[in-house]
Design goal:
The chain is built from six helices and four strands, in the order E-E-H-H-H-H-E-E-H-H. It is mainly α and about 170 residues long. A hairpin with an 8-residue loop joins strand 3 and strand 4. Helix 3 crosses helix 4. The longest helix has 24 residues. The protein starts with 9 loop residues before the first strand and ends in a 9-residue tail after the last helix.
Length: about 170
């Protein structure tokens, strides 16, 4: 793609060409994610005494039902170590149950919402939906669908950034 294209995040700096970070998509998205995490961690911690990752696990289990830790971190696209730590905390506060699963070639555990975890999830749900609506404020339903579609398309382009090599997974 030529540097003078509308897509090129180039500006002139004191030493010549430089990245225009306000148009460089990885930086723009990174800042957005950072701000969302800060806001969510403050909200969940202050209002409900849980972290963002703990809420993501509770929400995943509410949607998917009993799951292995592997399923939670892979399908939920979460960090393996962070899920492990969060599950210990959630189990200690009796928000989840962790029971032996069916034995395959290696032992497995099944994680499920405990009654207290279901109550916590349900208590948070309406506020979570309101926060989502506020985040999309000013976008029509069509705009929101276009945004999600564009983000999916950009995500599909990520492997091409590295010459098509698959992304490493834990």
């Amino acid at each position: 793609m030529p540097r003078n294209s509308i897509y090129a995040p180039v500006t002139e700096g004191p030493a010549g060409e430089a990245v225009a970070f306000d148009r460089y998509l990885p930086t723009v998205l990174s800042k957005l994610v950072s701000e969302l995490r800060i806001s969510a961690n403050a909200f969940f911690g202050d209002r409900y005494g849980v972290t963002l990752i703990e809420w993501r696990i509770l929400s995943f289990l509410a949607a998917a039902g009993p799951s292995s830790a592997y399923t939670i971190w892979t399908e939920g696209e979460l960090d393996k170590a962070a899920v492990s730590r969060a599950l210990r905390g959630l189990q200690g506060r009796e928000f989840v149950t962790i029971l032996p699963g069916t034995r395959t070639r290696r032992p497995s555990l099944v994680i499920d919402l405990a009654p207290a975890g279901r109550r916590l999830h349900d208590a948070m749900f309406d506020e979570i939906m309101l926060r989502h609506e506020r985040l999309l404020d000013g976008l029509s339903p069509g705009d929101a669908e276009t945004l999600f579609s564009l983000l999916r398309r950009v995500r599909e382009n990520i492997p091409g950034m590295s010459g098509g090599r698959p992304l490493p997974r834990d």
